[in-house]
Each structure stands twice: as C-alpha cells, then as structure tokens.
Amino acid sequence: MREELIISGRMNPMVDPTLNIWHWQIPLYLFLGGVAAGILFFASLYYIMGREKKYPAAIKWAPMITPFLLILGLGALFLDLNHKAFFWQLYLAIRIESPMSWGAWSLLVITPVSVIWSATWLKELLPAWQWKYPFLDELEAFFIKYRLILAWIMLLYAVILGVYTGILLSAFNARPLWNTSILGPLFFASSLSTGAAVIMLMAKSHLERNIFSRIDLMLIGIELFLIVHMFMGFQASTQVQIDAANMFLGGPYTEVFWIFVVFIGLLVPAFLEVLELLGYKIPIVITSTLVLTGGLFLRFIIVYAGQASRYLY
Amino acid sequence: MRFAMAIDTRKCVGCSDCVVACQTENNVPIGYCRDWIVEINDGTYPQLEMEIRSERCNHCTNSPCVRCCPTGASHYDYGGTVLVTPHKCIGCGACIASCPYDARYTHPKGYVDKCTFCIHRVKDGLPPACVAVCPTKCLYFGDTDDPRSEISQVLKKRKYKRLIPEAGTNPNLYFLI
Fold it and tell me: pTM here?
C-alpha cells in the first residue's frame, strides 16, 4: 500500500486539502459572458447577412440585455479578485501567453461595443426615446452610419469572448480535467446555445422562434458530440486524465453532471425542440429555461471539478 | 546562472526545521507555509519503504504560473527564480490554479505569495533559510550552470528524480534518491 502524507502540516487556505481558489464568481461570469457572447454573435452575424427585418429579436431586442449581463459578469470577476485595489494592473500589461490578459482586453472592447450597439437601436424600439444631450444624437447618427463596421468588430469579439472562457481553463495543465482543447469549442457551443435560448425567449414572430429553435437543436447536437469526444480523449490519455474523467464516470460528479447538464440541459430541450418542429405546441419558456440552466450547471461543474482534479506525485 | 536546490531524501528525517525557519525568516503569516514535508510509505509490513522529501516551489524553467499571469506580477528574476511582485498582483488566482505543485497561496493581504529561494539572503551571499538550518545537511542550494558548484557536483555523483516533469514545467528541485 502506498500512502503519501504532508507530515509538516500544510493547510494553506483555499489550496489545501484540494484547490478551492475559484468560487461561484468565476462560473457565474463564464455563464453570463457566454450568454452575452452568444447573443452578440447572432446579432452581428444576422445584421451582416442583412436579416434585420426578419430577426428583430436577435439583432435589436436581445442585445439590449447584453450590457447588463457583461457588467454583472465583470462585477463577479471583480469580487473574485483578492487584491482588488490593484485590478487596474490588468490594463498596464499585454501578456500574449496569458488567456486572462486576452480576456481582460477583449472585455474592454466588447462591453462598450455592446452598449453602443444597443443604444443605436433604442429609438427604433422605443419611439418615445429622446437623448438628453444633442451630442448624443450626433454620436448615434455616426454609429448608425458605420453600423456594419461595428457589426464586424462585434462578431470578432463575440467569438473571442465565447472561445476564450474555455481556453482560459484549458491553459492550466496542472488541472487535468481542464487541460483539454475540447473545452474551448465546448464552451463556445454552449454560449451560442444559451444565447439562442435568450433570443427564442424574446422572439415575437413564430418564424424567428422556429429558426433559433433549429439552430439551438443543432448546437445541442454539437455539444453532446463534444462531451462524448472529451471523455473519449481523457480515457485514451494519461493516468491523471483518466482519473479526471472518472470523476464524471462513477465519481462524485457523475449524478450532477449527467442529470443536470446532459439530461435536463441538453437531451430534454432537444426533445422539446424536435416536438415543436413536428408541430406540437411547447411553451418556449420551458425549453429556454432548461437550456440556460444546463449552461449554468456546465460552467459550475467544470470549474469546481477541475479544481478537484490534480496531479498526484 | 540557474539557481536550483537538491534535497537528499536519504538524509532528510522530516524534522520540519526548514518549514519553521522559512516562516520565521520570511514572516510567513500564521497558518500558511511556503515549504512542507512529504512522507511516502510504500509496501506492506515487513517490506516497507519510506521516503521523506522537503518540498517547496520548483522555480520551474518553464513556469505555468508566469505564463498564466495576466499582469506580469509573476516573473523570472535573478538566477532564474520565479518571484511575485505584490503591487502588480491582482489576486486573480490564475497562478495558483496553474501550479501542479500547489506551491502558491493567497497572502492575507490579498496578493499571491510563495517561496523566493530566500533571494534576499542569496544576494548577500547567504544560503536560503531552510538550507542554513537543516540539521542533517540534506539541502543543497546553488548554481547548476556552474559545473564546480556543490550542487552540480552532487547531481553528477548521485541519482535523482524531479517531481512531475511530465507537466512540462522543467522543475529545478532535484530529489536525490
């Protein structure tokens, strides 16, 4: 029998006995940022494709909530910092190798862009809306003129925001569960899926709801494929990654992952969406809520389980 | 110059003197430690084997903590040591999550803290506190780039292992076996 003990006593808070440095703030941010990235991705993509009339919820209505999602997410990130008074140091350095540096700079671009994008549609959506100062009218006219350029910037940064949350975790090779390149695409697919769920919820026309229901169905399929692929990769990898996969295949995270993420968050909404496409009346609130719940659970479980997975030496 | 440490697992008795010396020298807050002792018991009675290791930050040549740091607070310093600049650290925890040795912790003041190889002593020509107090003289500290240094000599003579080099960190703690 082999037994490893730290006999001098090491109980560094938030590190021992297992790593617990990131709490609810990080997964909540990953979820909110993901939803915002998904919405902004569809908004800019369909605007560039010229579907302004066809998909008003995706292009005009849903982006209205993204500034709030992003600011809430940034607030959560700020709460996570332990040396809060020095947060501005993030913006004194560009560290190419650090995904967190990439994320900080991307958020600095996409948050104002999401505010500007929403502001340019305000008058159209709320006819009674008046800007208080005349220079805001001029600004609005300027941004409406260059809306296409704004859409391209937004598309690029929505992709970066959606992908980087996964890359952020996969860059930590000390935590075998996170250390898989599947995590980037998986989180991106999940963020697009949750974004589509919000758009479905806000869509007024049957056509738009139907299209986003189809998109969501396809994304759920991709997510299921990536999850299976991730576990196959782990099982064919080193011992530490086999151990990481086993946390979900019989270990402590088995029930919560397969029930809340895969069953409630992916399989049930996919089934409901298929039923809807076949012509049954399914309340969209149920489908959307399930997709969003699944996305939230996915972030929480991956962040917590990843901290419990480690190298043993 | 490449500072490294060799720990003779055949001489270490696990007395924890290095741990206490470090806490005293570096004003490590109560309840925290920058170095620690691991004891591995292997086999079944009467075929038993024991290994004792004094462990700390590996001051990796390819440090995941330096790579992950978004502000450059974690950096390579004098002699290849990996240090943290407190006033640049935002306490995001990325380096703590990235360290396969769990050698880092958040200081109660908010920034991340860890073993410095007592670089303030080394610059004055003194050995690190843990090395200085070790009663069995099982710790060797020095420059592995210098073939005449004590640590280079001992690494030439003895067999050694490093901890999880498969994590790609290229660690600089050598455990003599």
Answer: 0.94
